[in-house]
Amino acid sequence: MSANYKDTLLLPKTDFPMKADLVKREPERLAKWEAAGLYRKVLAARAEAPLFVLHDGPPFANGDVHKRRRAPMVRTFAYKLMDGVRPRVREIAAEVIEAHRGKGPVNFLDDFGRAIPARIIAEIIGAPAQD
Question: Are the CB atoms for 83 and 124 separated by under 8 Å?
Answer without folding.
Answer: no
